[in-house]
Amino acid sequence: MKRSRKVKILATLGPASSEKQKIKSLYEAGADVFRINMSHTDHDRLRSLVAMIREIEAECGRPIGILADLQGPKLRIGTFAAKEIALSPGMVLVLDSDPTPGDQTRVYLPHPEIFAALEPGHRLLLDDGKVRLRVTERGEGSAITVVEVGTRLSDRKGVSLPDTTIGSGALTPKDRSDLEAALNAGVDWIAQSFVQRPEDMAEVKKAARGKAGVLAKIEKPQAVERLAAIVEQADALMVARGDLGVEMPLERVPGIQKQITRAARRAGKPVVVATQMLESMITAPVPTRAEVSDVATAVFEGADAVMLSAESASGAFPVEAVATMDRIAEEVERDPNYRNIMHAQRTEPEATGADAISAATRQIAETLNLAAICCYTASGATGMRAARERPQTPIIAFSPSVDTARRMALVWGLHVVVGEERGDLEAMIQHACDIAREEGFAKAGERIIVTAGVPLGTPGATNMLRIAFVPDQPSALA
Fold this sequence. Notes:
By secondary structure, this protein is an alpha/beta fold. It has helices spanning 20-29, 43-60, 112-117, 173-185, 198-208, 221-225, 227-233, 241-247, 253-267, 289-300, 310-313, 318-334, 336-344, 353-367, 381-388, 402-407, 425-438, and strands at 8-13, 33-37, 65-69, 84-86, 92-96, 106-108, 123-126, 131-139, 142-149, 152-154, 159-160, 189-192, 213-218, 236-240, 271-274, 305-308, 372-376, 395-399, 414-418, 447-453, 462-469. 46% of the residues are buried.
């Protein structure tokens, strides 16, 4: 199945999309990668979902990516004797280590790591920012705060810490257990929530042991401040706008989205734009005009993928949401301004032979109006370099590794084909011509450009490009 767009669609699975036929319908509507939210998925359900996706993959004959999204540290207050309290600005509320149900003056905070990191002046945002507290004094296992914003506060509401860097690592015991289960199930990407610093990514990558790509969810101010170092450590990034909009002023989120997207593009790493993209389609069969514009903006920015959360996981119109996103992306990529924006935002290649070859390949393909760029990639690095150039020419990525192919399902513009390595250069060229014709990218007599590393099978050593004519019939060499 050949997509008519280059941006990828990531769809979250949930109660509205937990059966095989529904998942297959989502794939046919346009989903390229499926997200499994480990906050709401036990290990048996995880294995069942992965098995269903792999069955669909075999039936459709195309690699499908799977992303397991780790919950991350969930910080919550305790309970109140009256279930909730009334708050008004200027009130004093003490957070402490006493598990007794709270009242108007105090509440339990079962996170000693927070008390160790808080400083006077730091803000605490509770209940998705509906309540804002500011620390006036920190003691041993307690903090005195003053209420700045808020009306009511009830049991077990979440806590966000926009000014505080917690010293503990990113992986909770639940995350470690979920990560191991996800790796054993054979997922392709691991998403780490609430990343604060590059060390968090190093911890997750060490635990993943190279069995899956590691994606950093940028949703905290601390991560934005350390973005360059996190980009260097991560295999991919996500603009997680939900929590970003809680911990940072909402008006800053669009600019940060552009900052993260462009940083990832410069590094040649996939970037996903997520959260509330078609939010109204949870309950309505059509989106708002503002939501359509929001999705279009992410596509115009050159994001590798756009993501649906509750729209496909628990909404009333999951397939329609995917199909709507698919249509928006196709229309944006046909817009004359799209090509100009891609060109204007293109960065200079890195000073390596492989990057120079990829840049030259894009320029030759566009100058000569070639039918396709064909790249052979064992690790996925060559494919991602080709995508980094954001060419207008279609990209076919060949890989002998189904794991690599599934991982590249997240990457902009790549149509991935799994197959055995060809024994020599001529057979490889002929194979590329045959696939380009069979998959509908090129017609007999048209030309394609092929890149690879010679000697064949050398990871990350792209050093060759060749222009070839597509023959009328398959070659005996291929």
